[in-house]
């Protein structure tokens, strides 16, 4: 599973760099064409927006895989290594799973509903744009599952969690 998630992380990094580069190029050429040639591309702003949405959701999954989300760590640090600290960590994981499952189910519903509506500029089904919600939810669940396995190993005293995460 670690190898799969490492590969996914590489793909997500590559997508992020590519999407940001395309957004930058589209925005630059749109500004130049508008102010120099008095011509605009109908699809440019829409494609940039869609790429941005995909980058945000997939980037969120990527950061989840690195435990890099913003967190208030005063209480967890204070309780680190104690039974209440482990209980708190377990509750946080349960809340994360609940949120991601809600996001997955509702994202899937939204994606299927929006498949019949097309975007005005590009003419693509809006469900393709919304599909990033369930896709990123599945990725976040996978990364959280990996983190939960490491948590269980720590609880059972089976191996160094930091070494297993890097593998």
Question: Would you write up a description of this structure?
Answer:
By secondary structure, the chain is mostly helical. It has one domain (2-166). The protein is built from 7 helices and no strands. The chain has helices at 2-36, 44-65, 74-79, 83-114, 126-130, 132-156, 161-166. Helix 2 runs parallel beside helix 6 and helix 4 (83-114) packs antiparallel against helix 6 (132-156). The model has no long low-confidence stretch (mean pLDDT 88).
SSE class: mainly alpha
Order of helices and strands: HHHHHHH
Q: How far apart, in Å, are the first and last alpha carbons?
A: 10 Å
Mean pLDDT: 88
Oligomer: single chain
Strand content: under 5%
Globally, the shape reads elongated
User: Number of domains in the coordinates?
Assistant: 1
* Major beta sheet summary: none
Low-pLDDT runs: none
Number of helices: 7
Q: Give the beta-strand count.
A: 0
Q: Determine the fraction of residues in helical runs and give it as a percent range.
A: over 70%
Rg estimate, integer Å:
20 Å
SSE arrangement:
Blueprint: H1 2-36, H2 44-65, H3 74-79, H4 83-114, H5 126-130, H6 132-156, H7 161-166
Output the keywords.
167 residues; mainly alpha; 0% strand
Describe the structure concisely for a colleague.
With 167 residues, the protein is an all-alpha fold. Helix content is 78%, strand content 0%. The longest helix has 35 residues, at 2-36.
């Amino acid at each position: 599973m670690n190898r799969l998630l490492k590969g996914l992380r590489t793909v997500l990094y590559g997508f992020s760099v590519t999407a940001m580069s395309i957004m930058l190029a589209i925005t630059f050429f749109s500004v130049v064409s508008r102010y120099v040639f008095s011509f605009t591309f109908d699809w440019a702003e829409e494609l940039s927006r869609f790429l941005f949405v995909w980058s945000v959701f997939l980037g969120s999954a990527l950061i989840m895989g690195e435990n890099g989300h913003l967190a208030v760590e005063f209480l967890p640090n204070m309780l680190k290594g104690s039974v209440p600290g482990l209980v708190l960590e377990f509750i946080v994981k349960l809340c994360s799973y609940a949120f991601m499952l809600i996001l997955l189910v509702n994202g899937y519903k939204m994606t299927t509903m929006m498949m019949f509506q097309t975007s005005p500029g590009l003419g693509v089904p809006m469900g393709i744009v919304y599909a990033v919600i369930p896709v990123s939810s599945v990725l976040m669940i996978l990364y959280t599952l990996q983190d939960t396995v490491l948590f269980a190993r720590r609880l059972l005293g089976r191996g160094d969690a930091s070494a297993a995460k890097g593998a």
